[in-house]
Amino acid sequence: MSGHLIVTGTDTGVGKTVISAALVHALGAAYWKPVQAGLDEETDREAVTRLARLRDDRVFPEAYRLKTPASPHFAAAEEGVLIDPDRLTPPQSDRLLVIEGAGGVLVPLAEPLLYADMFAQWRAPVVLVARTSLGTINHSLLSIEALRSRNIPIAGIAFVGDAVPDSERTICAIGQVRRLGRLPHLSALDYETLHMAFAEGFDLEALDL
Ligand SMILES: Nc1ncnc2c1ncn2[C@@H]1O[C@H](COP(=O)(O)OP(=O)(O)OP(=O)(O)O)[C@@H](O)[C@H]1O
Ligand SMILES: C[C@H](N)[C@H](N)CCCCCC(=O)O
Ligand SMILES: [Mg+2]
Question: Three-state DSSP class for 32?
Answer without folding.
Answer: strand
